[in-house]
Design a protein that fits this description.
373 residues; 15 helices
C-alpha cells in the first residue's frame, strides 16, 4: 500500500474505536497521549506520525533515522512523509496539529544523526521530545508495532478535535442567547479587544483587528483587503508589502499597507518600509505601522520626512488600540459588523496562529460582555 492508503486504513480503525485505547501497555499509552496532547509543542506528534508512517510503508527502515543524511539502507526522509502525506491527511480530518512540517522547526532541522533515546533535543517542554524518542525506540526494538502507535495517535487527535468542537459549539450557543441584548458600545468593544490582546500568544490579533475593520467598512470605503498571509510568513517570502494590504475594489494595486508590531517601531523599521515602497510597481498611498507599544516622538517625526522622498507615500506610526477606537467611533453604525468580522477571522485562523484557547477565550469574553456578566 502507498502512504495515503495506509493513512486511510489507520483513520478507519481509529474512528471506529474512539472510546478505547489500542495500546495495552500503560507506560507506552501515556507517552503517546502526552505527545499528542502537548499543546505548547506540536512538533512531537508530527515527528512521531511521520516516523510511524515511514515504518509502515517501508518495514525495513529504522524509525529512529528520519534523515537521509544519516546514510544507509535503513534511513528515510521523515520530512517527505510529513509534507507529502501527513499535511493533507491532517487538513482533511481537521486534526489539531500544526499545518506545517515538524522537520523545519529549530529542534529538528539540520539533523544528521539517529534520534535515539540518548539524543539531546533542545526544546520545551523537554518531556515531549523525551517521550517521542522513547516511542521511536520502542517501535525500533519491536516492543510495540508502528501501526498500533499511529492508530492510537490518530485516535487521540480525533478525540481532541471532537472535544474542541464541542466546547466551541457550547460557546457559540451561549452567544446566541445574548442576541437580543443591547449592542455593545464602541468603548465596550475596545475593552473587549484589549482583554483579548492581553492574553498570551496574541501576536496575530492586531492583524485581525485591522483586517476586520476593512471587512466591516471596506465596501463603504470602496476598498478591499487582500487575503492574509500565514502568521509566520516573511514579507520577502510572500512578496507582500505588509501584514495587511488594502486595494481599491476594482484594482489589484496596493494603496495602503499595514505592518503590525508587538514592540516599539524603530527608525530602522521606517528605513526598511521605504525600501519596500521603492520597489512597488505602482505607488502606495500609505504605509502604516500599528504598534502595541509606545510610539517614540523622534520615530514618528522621522516617518513624516518620507512623503516627498517617496513621491507621495505617507509613512505613519499609529497606536493599535487608538486605531480601533477611532475606527469604531467613525463607523459607529457598523460596530456590530466589525465585531462579527473579527470573530469570523479569529475562528478561521489555524491553531498555530490563534490557538484553540485564544479562540475560546474570545467567545467567552464576548458572551460575558454582551450578557453583562
Amino acid at each position: 500500500m502507498n502512504p495515503d492508503e495506509i493513512l486511510q486504513g489507520v483513520y478507519k480503525k481509529a474512528a471506529a474505536k474512539l472510546g478505547a485505547s489500542f495500546i495495552k501497555d500503560k507506560n507506552i499509552r501515556e507517552k503517546v497521549d502526552y505527545v499528542c496532547r502537548c499543546i505548547s509543542n506540536r512538533a512531537g506528534v508530527r515527528l512521531l506520525m511521520s516516523c510511524m508512517l515511514g515504518k509502515l510503508h517501508k518495514p525495513g527502515i529504522d524509525p529512529r533515522k528520519p534523515y537521509t543524511e544519516i546514510g544507509g539502507n535503513d534511513c528515510f526522509s521523515g520530512r517527505t512523509y510529513d509534507e507529502r502525506n501527513l499535511t493533507g491527511f491532517i487538513n482533511r480530518h481537521r486534526l489539531p496539529c500544526n499545518p506545517t512540517t515538524a522537520f523545519l522547526t529549530p529542534t529538528l532541522r539540520n539533523q544528521d544523526r539517529p534520534l535515539t533515546i540518548k539524543t539531546e533535543l533542545v526544546g520545551r517542554p523537554r518531556e515531549v521530545y523525551i517521550n517521542t524518542l522513547q516511542l521511536l525506540d520502542d517501535v525500533a526494538r519491536e516492543r510495540i508495532g508502528a501501526e498500533t502507535v499511529l492508530v492510537e495517535a490518530v485516535r487521540v487527535l480525533l478525540n481532541m478535535r471532537n472535544e474542541n468542537l464541542a466546547r466551541m459549539d457550547s460557546l457559540m450557543s451561549a452567544l446566541k442567547g445574548t442576541k437580543d441584548a443591547l449592542p455593545l458600545s464602541s468603548e465596550a468593544i475596545v475593552t473587549l479587544m484589549e482583554q483579548h490582546l492581553a492574553c498570551k500568544k496574541s501576536s496575530r490579533l492586531p492583524v485581525l483587528f485591522v483586517a476586520a475593520a476593512y471587512k466591516a467598512a471596506g465596501e463603504r470605503l470602496g476598498e478591499r483587503i487582500r487575503p492574509l498571509n500565514a502568521h509566520n510568513a516573511a514579507d520577502l517570502q510572500t512578496g507582500s508589502f505588509g501584514d495587511v494590504e488594502i486595494c481599491l475594489v476594482d484594482d489589484d494595486a496596493v494603496v495602503t499597507s499595514y505592518e503590525m508590531k508587538m514592540k516599539r517601531v524603530t527608525i530602522d523599521d521606517i528605513d526598511v518600509a521605504a525600501i519596500k515602497i521603492a520597489r512597488a510597481k505602482q505607488g502606495i498611498n500609505n504605509y502604516i505601522f500599528i504598534t502595541t507599544d509606545a510610539i517614540e516622538p523622534d520615530v514618528a517625526e522621522y516617518a513624516t520626512t518620507f512623503y516627498e522622498i517617496t513621491g507621495g507615500t505617507e509613512i505613519a506610526v499609529l497606536d493599535c488600540m487608538g486605531f480601533i477606537r477611532h475606527f469604531l467611533h467613525l463607523f459607529h453604525r457598523v460596530r456590530g459588523s466589525y465585531l462579527d468580522a473579527y470573530q469570523f477571522l479569529v475562528l478561521a485562523e489555524p491553531d498555530s496562529a490563534v490557538s484553540q484557547t485564544l479562540k475560546e477565550t474570545f467567545l467567552a469574553l464576548r458572551k460575558a460582555a454582551e450578557s453583562g456578566e
